[in-house]
């Protein structure tokens, strides 16, 4: 009997050319960026106006000169770039292909440059690139710490919604301790302890009592908000000099490295908290993927039963990771007070913890990815600040919305298929 | 190492999963633990592996009593286990999976991945496993994943290796290789406990057989026992292993699939340009190893999955443009692969589960309200017809055993006038009695003239039910075997041929290869006195009472 006698047997060697449908999100977003530039920014600049970008902070050995560009011409070129990218992405979608990742970066940069060019057009003030970037780094510090805290917890299977509370409690503890003991450095010790305490509470409820982790996290956030607010209004206000004096950490300028044009003053003229951040990011990435701790943490977060069958104590690992994650977030909270030289104020974390969670998701649960996402949010926030000081035509309230808008677009649009740790949020019981 | 279990008892609430079980495994023997789904085999092995704490009894290793607080202790004592559902982290590499829990580390706990790789390569080479230490687990076929599990156990110097239903996910050829590996392990002095409910394998592999039923040891058997003897020992009554069915009388090609493709979001072709049809009054079985596109095929027919290309026609009407509800109304009956998540709503009552598809139609609905009396009356009628054993139709369906829950699903899906029946894994996890019943109902539906499409990974089921067999591999149909023709020309459908097709070998080539080279199990079939592979013309006599035997109430729920 041959295949031909079998009804409807088909030639198995004939491959198909079908490809999955690709969403038109990407070209639409590109086209919107081009359209906004064309319709809102272009009409706002005069034909003979120009924009000046400043690349030096003034203290380095070699400083780059200022760059002055004709505003209208630059905007036209950037619009063409974005429109071309949109067209190409649309063609790719028709062919059921994805736009390459670098195209996102190109369009993003073009849009930011267009915005800066528009904002600085015809003004005597320059666009200070160094302080724009330095401020972006500073604003992303609590986001980076928060996102790393999320990575540590969620990789082991515990959802840490309490990052917000950990940041706030860290900020509070850092301010109070530094003020009472007379040095900002004490704050760096108190903050992680405070964060770890919140982490321990989360772990206790989530692991021992298997309470829904998101609910515990939200309740802890509310608890910390109320507790710090109460203490702020009573103890801290009664004796401000003792409990809530500003104790800024000093800036430490790293010799030689700080002299690199543009990046030097941005990266290497910072407080010890930011240098600590660099170390934690690198160490965490190495440990997570190259150490016994990391291997076991990931196993517990992906397939706890498999970890159990090789003798790993799943819940013990989760508890310790949640406490460690809390400590990292707490340390990040120190940025709000001693890190930026402020006294403690009510609700001063202002939702940063939730943006940090978004950064963690956008970074696909990887330390480096989370840092990149946190930097993006920090940059968008500082962009708003810088633009309102230069005095652009955009209302400052709108500019304050910028990081949140970017969060929504980034998380909803550009993430594609992200895969959280498989056992995230699911309590582990033996039988 | 000699392993002894004495009087092991494990109780879950009202259910005695293990009732004073005694078992002795001699060094270097392959000891089969035979029993139905839910008989308590896996529970026993989880006790042995330290995952469960026994309520009574003790474990002896070389005569010394031991107590395991967790799997770590069991592993340290030389017990290795390959679970039915592999204990591998999908995103890890092979080397990382093998190292997990016993990581070779340097300063600051940094992994020595080279050493982990070397461990894998060494064992892999010794037994000819051909496993790449840097491959990601999720990219490996299940047969290779199983070898990774064996490497994991061996790298920890396992003296007793427990294999829990190891062949459930393998092609016949992979099963053959596994049998070879088990032989080599035995030669090297490892004892193997082989848990299964498949009689053919037991007879081909085991040195000794212990049969468990409802949590108790009911006897020992030798591998020379016939399949019928083993089956009646396992089930506790005489059973008929093949389905009584008349030759098919196929009508017109009522259900047609043309160029159907389904693509995963990541671009993988899950269903690749399928073209076939199912005629009225015939059963087309889609055979293949789990994960070769059968699930998606079944779901795309009901509309749970979107088709990316192709056409589906039922009695001349195009299905793809219709919603799931319209397709159900058009007469499609659908038995989903995963009963507990897709087949029933666990917290709903039996009566409610029986009208999940008809809740908004007469007579159950009047305007916006339900008519509870009608719903209950319907439930009484259906449960009677489908022999569902229950206490009250208002009890949650989660109180039913797997077999009875599946009967509820069948009762619901077959209560409408059907023009197409699609059933995925209709008997997965069921006891023998329920399997007989489900098969009978499916054949009865065929005899009504309904086109029937069965998706199954169990070759026994495929050979029992099918009038034609479409073998799927990587989203494509490798070939369609006409059972009647094959019986006439070759004296029956060869398992070896189907097995080769399940691994992607085209039909004619598979037939030639299977004729030349028989697998261990294929050979055992010829040597032994097991039932013939497929002989629908010559049904074995069957007692009609057998199908109505009550399902054991102690049967465990599959969850």
TrEMBL record, chain A:
Keywords: Cell membrane, Membrane, Transmembrane, Transmembrane helix. It is found in: Cell membrane. InterPro entries: ABC_transp_permease. The chain crosses the membrane at residues 28-47, 67-90, 102-121, 127-151, 158-178, 184-207, 214-236, 272-289, 323-344, 350-377, 398-418. It holds the Pfam family BPD_transp_2. The keyword Transmembrane applies. GO terms for molecular function: transmembrane transporter activity. This is ABC transporter permease. It comes from Ornithinimicrobium tianjinense. The lineage of its organism: Bacteria, Bacillati, Actinomycetota, Actinomycetes, Micrococcales.
Automatic annotation (TrEMBL), chain B:
Keywords: ATP-binding, Cell membrane, Membrane, Nucleotide-binding, Repeat, Translocase, Transport. Gene3D superfamilies: P-loop containing nucleotide triphosphate hydrolases. Residues 513-559 are annotated as: Disordered. One of its GO terms (molecular function) is ATP hydrolysis activity. Residues 534-559 have a biased composition (Low complexity). It is found in: Cell membrane. This is ABC transporter. It comes from Ornithinimicrobium tianjinense.
